[in-house]
Amino acid sequence: MSRIAYVNGRFVPKSQATVHIEDRGYQLADAVYEVWALFDGKLADPEGHFARLERSLSELRIDMPMSRKALTTVLRETVRRNRIREGLVYLQVSRGVARRDHAFPTVPTPPAVVVTVSRVDRAATEARAAAGVAVVTTPENRWGRCDIKTVGLLPNALAKQKAREAGAVEAWFVDDLGLVTEGASSNAWILDGDGVLRTRDTQANILRGVTRLSLLDVAREAGLKVDERPFTPDEAVQAREAFITGAGTLVLPVTRIDGKPVGDGKVGPVASRLRQLYIERAKATAI
User: Fold this and answer.
1) Is 266 a catalytic residue?
2) Catalytic one among 14, 69, 149, 225?
């Protein structure tokens, strides 16, 4: 079956989906995006993703392309047409099409909207979570507004390639103070030696992860002590457990960092439990 994409008001086969060569997202990375996890055909963490989308657009002074209700309808219809129950929904909104110029268009242009859906093999992702994954560290070299979810992801792509070549699934950026900021496409966490769950605070230059935000609530409800406080790679290696979070990874245990085992090198019970609790919450609140 041909996959279907939504492009600027039309549902088209993905093989025929195109954007204008002067779309500012294509030429200038003048665009934002969001990714929803899809459980049983429903969008996970809807409020968090819509709120972050609206904030990102506002920070770049791009108009919301349609009402939240209308956009929800578009997302759901794209999912329905692709007949995918478990997967990821990708939304991209650019400033639109205009003659190439770094400054904003002088004549208002309608935002350009693209939606695609991809399938996820939940059995495979559960197997990966049960085994744990490796991460590598890399110097922080991104711009100073990582809180905006823009499509300008070249440093992230290079970091991901570094991870792949090292046999890892993720790269953690490390700032000039030697502290982990976040992953190339995820937030970073540890369970330290005192049993405290730690992740970088959003006052730092990190993305305000929606899965991260939901997991903070899940962890507190589970009775865990949570501290939004940074940590070094060495602290992560010496921690009891480590993991990453994101719409694509959910809660994914990390067992090796730069080739060194985290704790005893095995997937820990806390990360595994948090993954289960997060998925239960995500399914219960999906729309």
Assistant:
1) no
2) 149
